Amino acid sequence: MDGRKITDRGRATRQRIIEATGEQILAAGIGGTTLDTVRAATLTSKSQLFHYFPGGKAELVREVAGWEAQQLLEAQEPFIHDLATWQSWSDWRDALVHYYLRLGRWACPIGSLATQAAMTDPELEKLVDTSMSEWRRMLAAGVEKMQAARLIDGSADPERLAVVVLAAIQGGLVLSQPLKSSWPLEAALDSALDPLHRERLGHLDGNRE
Amino acid sequence: MDGRKITDRGRATRQRIIEATGEQILAAGIGGTTLDTVRAATLTSKSQLFHYFPGGKAELVREVAGWEAQQLLEAQEPFIHDLATWQSWSDWRDALVHYYLRLGRWACPIGSLATQAAMTDPELEKLVDTSMSEWRRMLAAGVEKMQAARLIDGSADPERLAVVVLAAIQGGLVLSQPLKSSWPLEAALDSALDPLHRERLGHLDGNRE
DNA sequence: CATCGAATGGACTCGGTAGTCCAATGGATT
DNA sequence: AATCCATTGGACTACCGAGTCCATTCGATG
Q1: A145: nearest Cα among A206, A196, A198
Q2: C21 closest protein residue (CA to C1')
Q3: Contact residues on chain A for B195, CB-CB shorter than 8 A
């Protein structure tokens, strides 16, 4: 299909465009990000933008979404693929908070896009939904591992818990933004994670199995 | 200051513009809402928009923010001003979910604006922050009332609990949107409210007062 | 019924943004 | 060295949206 060759130099330029666009979208939203500002930030030209992203701005934004989703998941590695021990959950939680801290902005690249996606591009919406579902699936899998290992009670619904934790992250960020502090995010996340600990077998009474 | 007279007819037109704009912003975002679409939806003319909102689109959006915030708070009455009994909290929770249900979209007029505000208009940002803080304050006041009435443990931090509950609402809505169901919102909200119940005095052991 | 100001209609300007196009450059390959 | 194509530069077009302006209608009040 795509018989066009791409050199290392080209790949680097393309990546530079994606990352710069990602930063601008996080700071100013999709609407606040223009091809001209991207061009200026990357020292490229209009023709390059359309050379690497023939679909124009919409395609560029979708590429950004994919890239950001990948970055977000990688930042949670290796814990997000484990989550089979208490330590793993704790490490995951810290890694996630650290990721948002490093972003420099109290916003989730994916959650923020999720809000804007439905309003702009159905394809983008699907992409973001997929990322979000994948994320949910991993958290739910972690809960199931904890249950399988008899570390927590087996009666809780892993899907539900995963959604609650994700909601706490997204909502925590919404609150962290105006308060310019990580504490709302951390409070919401820890609070959502609390049920997990409360179901810890053998915590208060001695029933297990 | 504003010596200009306004008739009932004018007031009605102005209000019609605000409400239509609010709906469009909720559906398409600030960027996706244009004065032309508002004009079309309200059967008005360009000059009317600037007649009633001399500050242009920015002023119109701010008026919408104020109106939406008022609507959101009113939807929680009279419970949000009470929250001194278990029943009141339960009623408040149901009223809020019902409000979002009636909106027809899984999005918070204020939370959604909060996300977009920082990117567009600093004045709007302040307005939204104020509304959000007021909302937090009321929830925290409710927690304090419960503590004062010795209905729950007094050691919990009301401010923190209020933030956690608000985050659950906002994050729950983020998740409800792609899943097109109220269950993420309800799950997140109920989960955030759970600590309140767990601190219920006299729940497991018999001490009260 | 005359008048005044509010309310309305709609054409017009101005600026910004996505997208097009063609020419020029540069590096790899032979 | 010659050639080819990816890469790059940047002017240009088309369109859309905010905001301006002036003319007209409507309704209240004397």
Answers
A1: A196
A2: A47
A3: 191, 194
- The CATH code of the domain at B66-208 is 1.10.357.10
Report, in angstroms and rounded to the nearest whole number, the Rg of chain B calculated over CA atoms.
20
Numbered ranges of CATH 1.10.357.10 in chain B:
66-208
The per-residue pLDDT for range B154-165, each reduced to its tens digit, is 899 999 999 999
Residue of A nearest to B122 (CA): A178
Segment A107-132 shows an average pLDDT of 95
CB of A96 closer than 8 Å to CB of A77: no
Q: State the span(s) of chain A assigned CATH 1.10.10.60.
A: 3-61
> Per residue in A148-200, pLDDT tens?
999 998 899 999 999 999 999 999 999 999 999 999 999 999 999 998 887 67
Distance CA B11, CA B48 (A): 12
Q: Rounded to two decimals, what is the model's pTM?
A: 0.93
> In sequence order, what are the beta bridge partners of B200?
B152
Query: Is pLDDT at A39 greater than 80 in this prediction?
Result: yes
Residue A186 is encoded by which pair of tokens? 């951390």
* Contact status, residue A17 vs residue A52, Cβ threshold 8 Å: yes
Contact B119 A27 (CB under 8 A): yes
Report DSSP state, residue A57: H
CA distances from B150 to A181, B143, B146 (A): 31, 11, 6
Multiple choice CATH, B3-61, 1.10.10.410, 1.10.10.60, 3.40.50.2300, 3.40.50.1820:
1.10.10.60
